[in-house]
Automatic annotation (TrEMBL):
GO terms for molecular function: ATP binding; inositol-1,3,4,5,6-pentakisphosphate 2-kinase activity. One of its GO terms (cellular component) is nucleus. InterPro entries: Ins_P5_2-kin, IP5_2-K_N_lobe. One of its GO terms (biological process) is inositol phosphate biosynthetic process. Keywords: ATP-binding, Kinase, Nucleotide-binding, Transferase. It holds the Pfam family Ins_P5_2-kin. This is Inositol-pentakisphosphate 2-kinase. It comes from the Eukaryota. Phosphorylates Ins(1,3,4,5,6)P5 at position 2 to form Ins(1,2,3,4,5,6)P6 (InsP6 or phytate). Has kinase activity and phosphorylates inositol-1,3,4,5,6-pentakisphosphate (Ins(1,3,4,5,6)P5) to produce 1,2,3,4,5,6-hexakisphosphate (InsP6), also known as phytate. The EXKPK motif is conserved in inositol-pentakisphosphate 2-kinases of both family 1 and 2.
C-alpha cells in the first residue's frame, strides 16, 4: 500500500514540453531562478506545471500535476515565457487526468523489507507492452505514457523530499529514500484518485489467487498468502513492539457469503471509506454494490482472469526450477516471472457513492519481477514455508503474534 504525506512537501515547478514529452526544472519556488538547459527544450510548446507530492511506495514517488505560472524567463531561452497548460491545449490534453511517477534508487533494504534490484522506467514500460498487455489486454491497465525527464528536476524533487523529512511531513518509513537522478524517464499514469463528494476508491493487492503449486503432497490448511503472512507475523513477534499484519485470504476474494462480506468490510476500513461523511447515508448501498460486483460483476471477471493466468503461467511452482533445470527452461521461467508479477499487482476500484454511477477497475504495480535475480529467494521462501510447517498449520512456537486464522482452507 502506498503512503501519503501527512503535511505538505514543497512543490516543484517544472517546464513541460510536448516535444518528446520532456519535463525540465523551472524552479522550486515561483521566484527562484530557473535552471533549464538550453539544448533540451523547444520554445514552441512549453507550459509550466507544479508537481505536488501525492504518495509513494517502495520503488516510486507519485506526483499530481497542477497548471502553474512561473514568472521567470528560463535560462537559455530568452524571451520564452512559460505559459500554463491552459494556454497550451495540446499539453493540457496530454496531462489531463494524469499523475507523474518517478523512480526511486533502490538500495539494500533494512530489516525485513525485501531488497529489489533497480528496474529502469524504460524497462517497466517495455514489460507492460510486451509482457503484460498481450496476456491481459489493455482494458484494465492504468494507461501509461513515457516521457523524458531532466536530471535537474529529479534533483529538485529530492531536495523537496529532504525538506519534507526535516519538517516531519513525509511518511517515516520512507525516510532516506531518494529518486534516481540517473533515470532519464518517467511515466505519466491515469490519476485514479476519486472526485471528492462524488466517488471513492479502494485499493488492494489480490496476491496469490490460487494456492501455491509447490507443496503437492502436504495436507494444506493455509494458502500461500496466508502461510506467508503467518510466518512473517511470527518473525515480527520476536521483535518487540511489532504488531501483526491483519490481511485477508485471497481465496475468499472469489467466494461469496460471510467470507466475502468480511473482506469487503476490511477493504472499506483499510481505505478509510468508513470514515467519510457520506458513509452514514450511503454505506449500506455501497457495501451491497461491491458485494454484487465481486460475485457477478467486473471485479470477479478480472480476478478470475488473473487466477487463470497465474495457474497457466506457473503450473509447477518455483521449486521445479531448482538446480540444473533452469538453464533449459528460460521460456517457462519467463512465465513464472509473469505469474509472480501478477501476484504482486495492485487493483484500484473507483466507484461513485450513488449506485447508478460507474465502477472503474484498473491494475497497477506491474513492474517486472526478474527471475534472474529473484528465483533463489522465491525458492528459499517456499522451502521455509514447507519446512516450517506453515502450509499445514503445524509450525512450532508461532503463537506469539498469530491473529485468528482466516484462511479459506483452514475453515473448510
Ligand atoms: Zn488463505
Amino acid at each position: 500500500m502506498n503512503d501519503n504525506a501527512s503535511g505538505s512537501i514543497p512543490e516543484v515547478y517544472a517546464a513541460f514540453s510536448d516535444d518528446g514529452g520532456l519535463l525540465a526544472i523551472a524552479g522550486t519556488t515561483t521566484t527562484s531562478n530557473s535552471t533549464t538547459s538550453k539544448s533540451t527544450i523547444s520554445k514552441s510548446s512549453l507550459a509550466c506545471i507544479a508537481l505536488e507530492y501525492f504518495s509513494e511506495g517502495g520503488a516510486n514517488v507519485v506526483y499530481s500535476l497542477r497548471p502553474a505560472l512561473v514568472e521567470k524567463t528560463i535560462h537559455g531561452l530568452a524571451g520564452a515565457r512559460l505559459g500554463t497548460t491552459t494556454e497550451s491545449p495540446n499539453l493540457a490534453r496530454r496531462l489531463q487526468g494524469k499523475v507523474l511517477r518517478l523512480r526511486k534508487v533502490q538500495e539494500p533494504a533494512q530489516g525485513d523489507a525485501e531488497t529489489t534490484p533497480y528496474v529502469p522506467t524504460a524497462e517497466v514500460e517495455r514489460y507492460l507492452h510486451e509482457g503484460i498487455e498481450p496476456r491481459l489486454g489493455t482494458d484494465y491497465l492504468v494507461k501509461h505514457d513515457m516521457i523524458k525527464v531532466d536530471p535537474k528536476l529529479i534533483k529538485a524533487c529530492n531536495s523537496a523530499l529532504a525538506t519534507g523529512e526535516e519538517a516531519k511531513v513525509r511518511p517515516k518509513r520512507r525516510k532516506g529514500d531518494r529518486l534516481n537522478e540517473n533515470e532519464p524517464h518517467a511515466l505519466l499514469l491515469d490519476d485514479m484518485r476519486p472526485e471528492p463528494g462524488v466517488s471513492f476508491m479502494i485499493e488492494f493487492k489480490p496476491k496469490w489467487l490460487s494456492d501455491s503449486p509447490n507443496p503437492q503432497r502436504l495436507k494444506r490448511r493455509r494458502c500461500r498468502t496466508c502461510a506467508l503472512r503467518t510466518m512473517r507475523n511470527a518473525e515480527k513477534g520476536k521483535k518487540a513492539g511489532r504488531s501483526p499484519t491483519a490481511g485477508f485470504c485471497p481465496l475468499a476474494l472469489t467466494s461469496s457469503g460471510a467470507a466475502l462480506e468480511k473482506i469487503i468490510d476490511h477493504f472499506l476500513f483499510a481505505n478509510g471509506v468508513q470514515d467519510h461523511p457520506l458513509w452514514k447515508s450511503h454505506g449500506d448501498r455501497v457495501t451491497e454494490r461491491l458485494a454484487q460486483d465481486f460475485t457477478s460483476g467486473s471485479t470477479v471477471t478480472l480476478l478470475s482472469r488473473l487466477r487463470e493466468l497465474e495457474n497457466d503461467l506457473d503450473p509447477h511452482g518455483c521449486l521445479s526450477f531448482e538446480g540444473h533445470q533452469q538453464l533449459q527452461n528460460e521460456g517457462a521461467l519467463d512465465d513464472l516471472e509473469l505469474a509472480m508479477t501478477l501476484r504482486d499487482c495492485t487493483i484500484f476500484a473507483r466507484l461513485t457513492w450513488e449506485p447508478s454511477g460507474p465502477l472503474e477497475l484498473r491494475l497497477a504495480d506491474l513492474d517486472r519481477k526478474d527471475w534472474r535475480t529473484r528465483l533463489e529467494r522465491w525458492c528459499a521462501t517456499e522451502r521455509a514455508l514447507i519446512d516450517g510447517g506453515w502450509y499445514e498449520g503445524a509450525e512450532k512456537n508461532a503463537d506469539i503474534l498469530r491473529p485468528r486464522e482466516i484462511c479459506q482452507l483452514w475453515a473448510s
